[in-house]
Amino acid sequence: MREEQLNISKNKVQTGEVSVRKEVIEEQKTINVPVSHEEIVIERHAVNNDSTAEPVGAEETIRIPVSEEQVEVNKNTVITGEVDINRR
User: What does the DSSP assignment read for 19-60?
Assistant: First the structure.
């Protein structure tokens, strides 16, 4: 008597490959931000056009800064999506 039997084996064969990489792109941005500041203005004028020995300019003005806005720039990383990598 005879019979045939099958011998089955599996061999792993590389059929391709996948490359995963990350690219970082830097770009320059210019942003116009309006800022303001406050000043106290003190003006000095001669009274009734009287003459004095003290030299006074005709329109002497003194400016004293009170407050100003300053621009602060920060960069934050924000998640914009997810990528899943699976093997089948």
Answer: ------------------EEEEEEEE--STT---SS---TTE
